[in-house]
Amino acid sequence: MPAMDRPIYVPPQGPPQGPGPSREIYPLMGEENIFKMLADFYQELGRSSIAAMFPSDLEEASQKSAKFFVQVLGGPPLYVIDHGPPRMRARHIPFEIDEAARQVWLACFMKTLKNADKKYSFPTQHMAGFKDFLEGFSAWMVNKA
After folding, report:
1. Is 118 left (phi over 0), alpha (psi -120 to 50) or beta?
2. Which of 11, 45, 65, 69 has its C-alpha lying 20 to 30 A from 39's C-alpha?
3. Cα–Cα dist 116/60, whole Å
4. Would you write out the chain's pLDDT as a tens digit for each of its 145 residues?
5. Angle separating helix axes 31-46 and 99-113, nearest 10 degrees
6. How far is CA 15 from CA 12, 32, 49, in A?
7. Contact between 97 and 141 (Cβ < 8 Å)
8. Torsion of CA 68, 102, 46, 57, to 10 degrees
9. What is the phi-psi region of residue 27: left when phi exceeds 0, alpha when psi lies from -120 to 50, beta otherwise?
């Protein structure tokens, strides 16, 4: 990884402290629905004020992210097989992510999650825990004050 010419902010709360999302989500949703959810999420990101932070090929980016979420939600380790250990904070350090960018990212995800039970068979009993995970995960990606 190239050397950074800027100080890297570390969120005071540190890495997410709570439990991850339920691993029961994957068997209830299925891989195809997780990939669709992430494809829709990346379409939202592509229309957002932080679109420039993402590669022009949103389809490829969404598939990479979907592999991560399949694994986090209880499915096979697709991300690790294709890309190695997630190390998500380290992978995001090259991008300047401040709290405002985090809030846009979260808003795009929350918009995607509207009616997720119908669109993606997302199990409603696990939605609150998933949203909590997204809050903590995204806070840890902030690297610029």
Report:
1. alpha
2. 11
3. 22
4. 455 689 999 999 888 888 899 999 999 999 999 999 999 999 999 999 999 999 999 999 999 999 999 999 999 999 999 999 999 999 999 999 999 999 999 999 999 999 999 999 999 999 999 999 999 999 999 999 9
5. 130
6. 9, 29, 26
7. yes
8. -40
9. alpha
Site of tokens 């949103």: 58
Report the alpha-carbon distance of residue 44 to residue 30 in Å, rounded: 22
Residues counted in the chain: 145
Q: Which of 34, 42, 59, 17 is nearest to 126 (CA)?
A: 34
Instruction: State the amino acid at position 18 in one-letter form.
Output: G
| Residue 81 structure tokens | 């097989």
pTM over 0.85, yes/no: yes
Sign, CA torsion 93/97/99/104:
negative
17 vs 91: CA distance, rounded Å: 20
Q: How far apart are CA 44 and CA 40, in angstroms?
A: 6
Residue 133 CA to chain centroid, in angstroms?
A: 9
